[in-house]
């Protein structure tokens, strides 16, 4: 998904340097991604810049798309990141400059690795369903991988960790003894928590104590240690937790994202993750100049192509998780 807000870190304050068990609740930012569509942005945020290598988290819907075109994002570029597409309802047709055409459906995560550069488009397919609801997540790639090759993988249905009272669909990394088969370059976790049944909805899941974690409800609410987080909010859990005891509402669908703290500084602007102002400037010029770096989505059914916006009049500076 293209990010229309150019300087994504403009209003982000430094994250606290100290990390331990935390329960920090904050509200999403409303961000407009098109004249018709708004999303709820949980990362980056003035309250929290990153969680592990997760550097971007938008929740869209549920929105009624019956009789409408639904999602319609023309070809646009990415670099230095992975996109992770997770749906609750609806379908999204992905096309990219590798020549890929793939239908992302609920329960099957789509992971695109931009590496040095890729272009893609995202559209609701013809004959799509009446509701669109999901999350678009980005992962910052570390120095060793950020200039690597482009790739796209549509994974098999996410396996489930079943514990008394809870069901966790694991779509990135590992939770307990359930391995998703999908990996981040740095250690990552992506899972969706739901109640076992409307009557059984309290339980515990194991966590890696080396990870920091955040809860992002897609629907309903979750309660941890007396703190309730609902759709449109996030609850940062900090680090050094070996388990999570949680209560869910009967209709809850809650993202659990985690990873080892990302220690590199990045420049995040528009759809690019780089390390310097000059890198962003070069990438912008190469995309707008239709150079070979990102390729073209040649099988996109239309001439549309999103242009990179103007750079700000100030120099973009690298920002880390803390400073």
How would you describe this protein?
The protein is mainly β. Helices cover 4% and strands 46% of the residues. The strands form 6 sheets. Strands 1-22-19-24-17-14-13 form a 7-stranded antiparallel sheet, with no helix packed on it. Strands 2-3-4-11-6-9-12 form a 7-stranded antiparallel sheet, with no helix packed on it. Strand 2 (29-32) and strand 3 (38-43) form a beta hairpin. The longest helix has 12 residues, at 277-288. The model has no long low-confidence stretch (mean pLDDT 93).
Descriptive labels:
mainly beta; 323 residues; globular; 7-stranded antiparallel beta sheet; Jelly Rolls
- Per DSSP, what share of the residues sits in E-state strands of 2 or more residues? over 45%
Secondary structure category: mainly beta
Shape: globular
Name given to the CATH homologous superfamily = Jelly Rolls
Q: What's the CATH architecture name?
A: Sandwich
Q: Name the helix and strand elements from N-terminus to C-terminus, one letter apiece.
A: EEEEEEEEEEEEEEEEEEEEEEEEEEH
The oligomerization state is single chain
Question: What is the domain total for the residues?
Answer: 1
Q: Strands of the biggest beta sheet: in what spatial order?
A: 1-22-19-24-17-14-13
Number of helical elements:
1
- The rounded Rg comes to 19 Å
What name does the CATH topology carry?
Jelly Rolls
Annotation, overall tally of beta strands: 26
Flag low-confidence runs.
none
The CATH class is identified as: Mainly Beta
Biggest sheet layout: 7 strands, antiparallel
Mean pLDDT: 93
